[in-house]
Amino acid sequence: MSLETLLERGDLWRGGGHAEAPVRATGHARLDRALGGGWPVGGLVEVAGTPGHGEFTLLRPMLTAVAGWQAWVAPPHVPHAPALVAAGLDPARLLHIRAEGDEALWALEQALRSGVCEAVLGWPTAADDRALRRLQLAAETGGATGFLFRPPRALEQPSPAAVRLALRADAVEVHKCRGNRPEHPIPLQEAPAEPPGPLRERRIHAVA
Amino acid sequence: MQWLSLYLPNLPLAAFARPPGAPPLALTAGRPPRIHSVDPAARDAGVRPGQPPATALALCPALRLRPRRPGQEAATLESLAAWALQYSDHVEIVPGAGLRLEVGGSARLFGGLDSLYRHAREGLARLGHDAGTGLAPTPLASWWRALHGVSEPVEGAVEPALTPLPLTGLGFGPEVETACRRLGLQRLGDLFALPSADLGRRLGPELPALLERALGQQADPRPRWQPPATFASRLPLPEPVSAAEALLFAARRLLGELAGWLRGRDAATAELTFHLHHEAGEPTPLTLGTLQPVRDPDHLLGLLRERLEGFEPPAAVAELALEAGRTAPAPPEQADLFAAPVERPAWEPLVERLRARLGRAAVTGLEPVPDPRPERAWRATEPGAAAGEATVGGPRPLWLLEAPRPLEQPPTVAGEPERIEAGWWDGADCARDYYTAREADGRRIWVYRDRRDGAWYLAGLFG
Question: What are the backbone dihedrals phi and psi of residue B277, each rounded to the nearest 5 degrees, phi first?
Fold first, then answer.
């Protein structure tokens, strides 16, 4: 059994790890429970899936709750500003970064390491084990939560990311997390598509 | 420029520490003495300003009467000004009333004006101050709003933000207020509506200039408070106490003030001394030292709590004073864990670094634009400069495709479409019915039917 495989095991006790690592609430109660409280602060979250399949549903509550900067690095399309604002994100604290290939990995690392961003979302075209390790380290240094959106097949490779998920349009399956991972996919609640009322109210609903 | 005003309506009472559970307090002034200020407990008992002390005591036998201390009121404002240095190096003391600070330059250190404002309001509450606050582009506009307790920040034009404010209570003086009443002028908006020559003739020459300064039509340079080089603050207790809890209560405010002063200097302190003043005799010094320079008030309060454990002051304490010893540059890892929001490094260097390598246009903010056509409803901005309201008429997808993709099969749609017909004015007109649809694998998509040729297109993905 290789070290990689050992580290992949969620139930392996790792000396020097913090028993109560800081987290950010995901805004999805069942997912919070599964992840031991929420997204890791100072850690990487790998999300395997294809664009359009629930990424905003998954991250919207967290993205509207962060008070600091969030960086979107090399997204598949330009995020649509009216949708972001309608969801309650603060556009004045959003950084949209266009980059390709290695430049995207470099930009991700900069954003994660800087300590400026609370959340960094990245769509790198390719990321090998070494690149992921660098990003994980950068996230730890900067106290950021990094989300890497990767193709479904990425889960076949080992990864140093603290959390690994497979995302479908309406549910998320936890492949790796601290502690015991749940066996069943966790359904995600979509935020109401129609703006039913004042923005602030919707924001509360989304987080609740 | 952005001005933050802090108005302390109860400054005479704020000059004293009022631990919870303390007896009702009223301050007297004048000769013969009359009640000047009353705390909520005394007010509940029927004590009112203007009453003779004997009447007040008859209404509320437990009442503590103390003479008002104008000197201590000035010192309270100076201590608050020292605290406010964390938000601005341009602090103006409005004697007997409060502070005005220019915070436009430091907003980004706090992650924006809104969070600076929130930080300041929460900080004031933690110091135990009951304050009116205002935030506006001119010093007078923010001050007037603070005087009337309208804390909503003024974004954009100043005039509509001042128009509804009553004229009384703005410090125009009794003659002007009486004249206004006679003329039937009740609100600032009534003054704005009058020609300025008229206004000067009827209400005195100062008023038009004052209004112009408030509206930003005329420069309004404000004096700058010169902070002392060292920190010292004192807080009297209405009656001498020995209990540690009451001392800690008074210390909390002093340490909060110290923390603001230190943050303004980007400094920390490794040694500070409390002086416990008694009604007679020498004050008792109580020195706290730390291994590392710190400025977190909760940390220091914890140290004081430890220090007071098993400590018996030689006499009851009538006044608590705090002096900071040597200060040192704040250590880089210093994080005020208990102060919200968390201070993060400046974002500009990150943007500069990214742009240096990726190009200027590759690193931007994004903001909505009020155009009904989705493709034109956004634009890139300078980082940090994006703003805008959500004014869309229906759901919008996270990902809007750069170019709509023709759909071979008409999608299964339900519900009412959102009809967008616009653009006749610039030649890029469209006539479309937008629907939310769901693909077989659950993916939510945004589609439209072009009403001119009936063809279906994929416009975006909700994500």
Answer: -85, 135
